[in-house]
Structures are given as C-alpha cells and as structure tokens.
Amino acid sequence: MFKKKFTNLLSRFSLPVGLLLLVNFGYGATLNAATINVPVGGNIQQALNSANDGDTIQLAAGAYSPGTAITINKRVTLNGQSQSGTTVQASVIMNAGPGNGRMELTNLSVIVNSPPTYALYIDGSNADTAPVTISNVTARVVGSNSQGRGILIAPHGHTINDVLISDCTFSDNPTHGMHIDNSNGSPGGSVTNLSVSSTSFDNNNFKTSGQRGYGLYIFAYPATDPLTVDGVSFSHCSFSDNIYKGMYIEALSNAVFDDITVNNSGTLDGSHAAGIDINLKFGAYHNITISNSAIINCGLNDVTSNGTGIVIKARDDGSSYGAHPATLDNVLLSAVTITGSGSGAGGAGIRFGEGSPTTGLTNVVMTGSIITNNTPYGAINVNPDPNGEVHDVRHNWWGDISGPLDVVSGDSSIPDTNPNGQGDTIVGALNYFTWREAKGIPTLTEWGMIVLSLLLTIGGLLLLYHRKTTAVDVRWSNTNLL
C-alpha cells in the first residue's frame, strides 16, 4: 500500500521535476537571462565580457565612443534605444560560435571613422558562427577615401548560417553597402540562409577612385574552392545610386530577390556599369529569381564597356574562367520592370551572357515583365553558340502593341524577325512570341490558359461533388440492405 501511494505521489511531480532538470542543464541561460544596463560613457565591452548567453546589454540614448572595436563573442543581444537615439562610434564584430541562442544587434547606429574598413563584421575567421539577427541598425563608415563597407560577412573557410537582417540602412559608405567575401584567399567557406528585408544599400560612392559604388558585392574566389552562397532572400530592399553596380554577384544559388528597387545605379563610364550584374564564376549554380522589382535608369553613361540594367552570366570564357567553368540553371524574372537603362554599342535593359559565346546559362524565363525605353537594346542574348539555349522571354510588354523590334535574321530567335515592331529592340537567341499586346493585359494565349484553368477547376469541383453524392447513396443502400 505504501509503495503504491509513493509511486502515485512521484508520478504527480514527474513533469515539474523534468522541467527543473531542463532549467539546470542547458536552458538556464535563456530562462534566467539578465539585462545589463550600460550608461553613456560606460564600458560596452566590459558588459559583453561579463554577460552570459541569452543576456541583453542595454544601451541608453546618446553616443558611445569605445575607442576600439566591440566584439560580440557570446550569444547575447546588444540593444539601443533606436537607430537615431543610440550611436556606437566603433566597429562591431560578431564572432560567437554555435550554441543555444543567437547574436543580436538591434535599435542603434554604428558610425565609424575609417579605419577600420567596416562598420559591422560577421567574422568566421576562428570557427563557424552562431545565428545572427540585425534589426533596426544603421551601419556606415565615414571620412574615408579607402575601402569602407557598411557590413562585411566573411566566413574565412568556415560556415556562417542563419543571418536575419531587417529594417536596416547600409548606405552612404565609401565602397560597399554589404560585402560578402571569404577574405584573405581562404578556400571553401559558406554563407547560407541569409534573409534581408526592408533594408537600403544606397549611394555607397564616397571613395573617389578605384573600386567603389556597390550596393551588394559577393566575391567568389579562390577559383579552385570558391565561396558558397546559398539560400538567400532580399525583399523590399533598395540598391540605388551606386555608381558601379547596384548588385554585383559572383557566387549564388537558391536566391530570391522580391520587390527590390535599383534606380540610377551603374552610371560610371568604363566600369561595366549595371543595375544588377550576376557574373557567376567557378561553380555550378542554380535557382535565381527576381520578381516584382524595378530596374530604372541603370547602366547609363558607360559607352566604353556597354552599360546594362541587368546582366546575367555564367562564365566559361577565356583561360581563367575556362579552366573552372561556371554554370547557372533555372533563372526566373517575373513581373520585373526594366526601363530607361543601357548605354554603349552593346548596352541593354537586360543582357544574357558575356561578350564571347558561353553555354552555361540554361532554363532562363522572363515573363510578365515590362521592358521599355532601353538603349540600344531592350534584351540581348550574346550567346549565339548553336549548342546554347534560346531563352524564353514570352508574354512581356516591350512598349508597343506591335512587339519588340527584331531585324536580325538567323540568330535563332523565335520568330526569326519582327521588322515592324515598334517596341524595344531585341537580338539573339530569344523566344519572344507571343508578347503582351498592352501593358498589364494578358495575351490571347494567356487568356486561353486562364479559361482552361477555370474549366478544369469547375470540372474538378463537379467530379468531387459527384463522388460525394455517390458515396452517400452507397451508404444509404447498405443501410437498407442491413
């Protein structure tokens, strides 16, 4: 009797005991997290050093001048009052290793007088890093005529995984808004699951010569073991007023750019100027989507090296790229406006390929988009190799009901020519028939698909109704038989 009562008593307390064990073994840092307040003039690094995983270091309104870079090497939160209310006048380095929790930087500005060459630095030089959250942060390097990045993400051969960035400003830097780079020639390394939303990468031009003017820059080297950048999304972001390129990308897979704006980027002669330059190197890449976005007045003034609004390339040309050829499979551009862009003899709203023939770009579709007032071409495929692909650019609006102008015969386009077209000019292996006959209005083919889809839906619903009524009849019959 006593044993039974004891067992029942123990069972009543088993859940609380289990929870207590969880607290004591691994969860206590989060459940017992502390807030460490640092007044203006206080020592931020000392507070970080004394913190435990899960703690919050709370900064006051005002400006902090630590004198040296601040290092977040634990899974803690460094929080200010607001982007305009709290300013840290030193670089912030985030390099905690994996474990329970995230490194978080929120509600402040990091404004740095160069050197160093970055305001924020996610640093994988020692090991893989913990997940990162950066929210409501302004990051800027000022007073520099050398390299200066709003944020540098560098795995150094390790893995930086799970980075969430939202409502930030990485603008007005000397050279780059965001720079992703293995750094120092480290082999391998990866940046994965990077999500960026509602963030600006504008006007990063303050260096007066040399490399500058990039909103986003992703560097692939070394050729024998390049950086991996996979699982990336940018939404509701701007990459405007960057004189070299709004975005320049050498390594990227499984990426979505949705509702982005690139306006007046790529405006410097001789810089291969572009709003977006996807220039993939040294690897096999796949699945890049650009949707619901606007590329406006980009690739201008570059009469020397042919400015473009968007250029997409998988490099296998020349001795250096030919030795380590790149491929890109599955590209979708949907509901993209490309207007007022391009310069030079080979300039375009959108260009597929480098100047010399390449064959590594496959399964390319551009649909539901607006391509107007670009110079001299609306779209060009510079890959005439017969083994290459005829890219699918159907169901787009080219600026006129008559479709794009195509006067070049024998270039594998479909149709072969459209000499009466009054829209933007196209050239190369592009399938552009049919086109939208008015901006925003589906073609006859698309109307047919819409009607067919409706008929199939109605038919499916009728079939489902028929099956349900039949099943009811069978059960009624069985009931009567019994």
Give a structural overview.
The structure is a single chain. This protein has a domain of 324 residues: 3 Solenoid (Pectate Lyase C-like), CATH 2.160.20. It is 17% helix and 35% strand. β1, α3 and β2 form a beta-alpha-beta unit. It is α/β, with parallel strands linked by helices and 482 residues long. The longest helix is centred in the last third of the chain and has 38 residues. The two termini are 52 Å apart. It is globular, with a radius of gyration of 28 Å.
Ordered list of secondary-structure elements with their pairings:
Layout: H1 2-12, H2 14-31, E1 35-38, H3 44-50, E2 56-59, E3 62-64, E4 70-72, E5 77-79, E6 86-88, E7 92-94, E8 103-113, E9 118-123, E10 132-142, E11 149-154, E12 159-166, E13 176-180, E14 190-197, E15 214-218, E16 228-235, E17 245-249, E18 253-258, E19 261-263, E20 274-280, E21 284-296, E22 308-314, H4 318-323, E23 327-339, E24 348-352, E25 361-367, E26 370-372, E27 377-381, E28 391-392, E29 426-427, E30 430-431, H5 444-481
Parallel strand pairs: 1-2, 2-5, 3-6, 4-7, 5-8, 6-8, 7-9, 8-10, 9-11, 10-12, 11-13, 12-14, 13-15, 14-16, 15-17, 16-18, 17-20, 18-21, 19-21, 20-22, 21-23, 22-24, 23-25, 23-26, 24-27, 27-29, 28-30
Helix content class: 10-25%
First-to-last CA distance: 52 Å
Give Rg in angstroms: 28 Å
Report the top-level CATH class of the domain at 33-356: Mainly Beta
Oligomer: single chain
The rough form would be described as globular
Please indicate the percent range of residues in DSSP E strands (runs of 2 or more). 35-45%
CATH topology of the domain at 33-356: Pectate Lyase C-like
- Give the low-pLDDT segments: 1-29, 470-482
**Mean pLDDT across all residues, rounded?**
87
* Biggest sheet statistics: 16 strands, parallel
Q: What is the overall number of helices?
A: 5
What structural class do you assign from the helix and strand content?
alpha/beta
Per DSSP E runs of 2 or more residues, the count of β-strands stands at 30
